[in-house]
Amino acid sequence: MRISSGAFPFAGKGPRKIDSLLRVLHKPLLHTLLAATVLLVGACNSTKWVPPGERLLVKNTITIPSGTLDADELQSIIKQKPNKRVLGRPMYLYLYNLRNPEKVARKRALKDSLCAVENDQRKLLGKDPRTCDRSSRGRSGEAPVILDSNLLARTSQQFALYAFKEGFFEVQVSDTVHLDRPKWPFGGWSRRPFKKPKAAVDYRITPGSPWVYCVVDYHVDDPLMAAIVQEEWDQCMVKPGERFDDDVIEAERTRITDLLRRRGYLWFTRDMVLFDADTSAGDHEVDMRMSLERPLNIGQRGMRGTPEGTPYHLENVVIDATRRTKANAGAVPDTLRYNGYTFLYLGRRPEFRPKALLGPVFLRPGDRFDQLDADRTFRRLTNLRVFDRVEISYDTTGIGRKGFANCRIGLLPSKRQGFSIEGFGTNRGGFLGTSINFNYRHKNLFRTMASIQATITLGLEAQQSLSANSASEDASTSIGRDALFNTVEIGPEVKVSFPVRVGSARSGGGRFVINTLYNYQRRPDYTRALAKGAIGGELNSTATQVFGMYAELNSIRIPRRSPEFTQFLDNTNDVVLSDSYTDHLILNFPRFVYTLNTGAERKRRNTWFARGTGELAGTALRLFQGITNSYSDTTGLNYRTLFNIRYAEYWKVDLDARF
Q: pTM of the prediction?
């Protein structure tokens, strides 16, 4: 049989190209790539493991009139959503489709059965059994989302409930399953059916006209509570003429609860703020009446004369900061009275000084209960980072007087001291280096809840010198040149912070900070010593914001520069680089730091982190020299000196924002 050259593409130039192609096909890397390609092509069939008669959900659409409901909130309500997509493709579904789920289940069940048999043998030998949980483990990737009519009905019900809470009492919701492809990008549905068992769902919501508030009033049977509500009724969030909104009603319940708990109503909860809506007021109008009742009490639902309707004062405030261990589990703590407070402790003396521990405490014996003081106490004790757990509880047991309660502040101290070692390795263009950090931290210095953090850094590195014989001119560096590492860096740093009682009622307190640092570097071409001292304060203005102001002094000395390095700096003709290797001072005053972290308050889906710094250097020294008449003129270049040492003048702003 003859094969023409046109029928076989490699026949034109003999068997050489065929042999070269076969050699390429025998390469292991190419085999791996071909196998991966075949697997990916097979996995890209998104309906590969969809059961017969079922359909894969690929899209959800919501059709609503503009200006009525929030589409983003409606999307979060949907009970069944398509598979996750990456760059427009269901990559997690493709990963799941790489393996047959039935075979995976059989193999895992077999391994679990073998594991159970092995555990029986281990029990006979007195050994601990192993965990057999392969069948319960999740599969890699994401299983196909099969269209479920029950979940569609639940989604429609949730849409109707959400619209009802937003004031649309005549809402109508319908869901339609489309077997046709959706139009792109303008929306709608085409007449081309899916080639594979897929489906898309379209939810249509007709809200109708919203209901608005007509008359808003309140009813409270206790005169004192009624007077408090009337005092700030102008702050009511439910206002006549506005649309009915369940979120606003919940916010108003929170406002009333906070108002009463700040006035001493210790046992009052937000469940006692009830709203009654009357839709017979008129056309799409609703009358709202707020009442304060005890809904769970069958007998007396009113507030008059009940514990929930009574303002309380604090009888005793007990602070328990005992460190419980297995050794002292049954020990009875000793008591200490200080400024009207009762302290519980174990051992010879309290672990924390009473005066220092009372700094962040705003609940005082004899004062009327105020929820704001309780929240502020909890926040400041937590921000000290000295306690693993903070609990505040109240009790009326054993108190003969009405309207008085005991307060107990339970504190679980964290580990007082800690020590850690960190090691690092570097490779800069073939030059190796290593460094090690010794870190020490103490959280209760002198029993005042002050903290000290000390760090010592030691680094060794090999670096190429600008001149092979430059180091020989200096006796102090000749040893380093001949050794494996010719660069040495060592430096201790100490940071001490003291808690201070400053800030508003919402703040988390502040800290007074002192920071000192010394860093010595010996390199083949120069030697540099850096000394730093900083003093300042930090204020947690809110749960999410921290504000700090500091004064910082840096002294940089260059006692040695090799002639080759000096010539190199002169040849670069870079003033900034040259000034970095001269003796100089940097006084940053003031230096401001602002930090915002919205994720610190509560868990949110979207959070902001922003950190901004601003510093002014040299201006304070310049003004001081002008006042004391000790000002010295420039030395020919654009800089000034203090004690014959040049100092820097600049202002700098830095911002780091993350969403």
A: 0.73
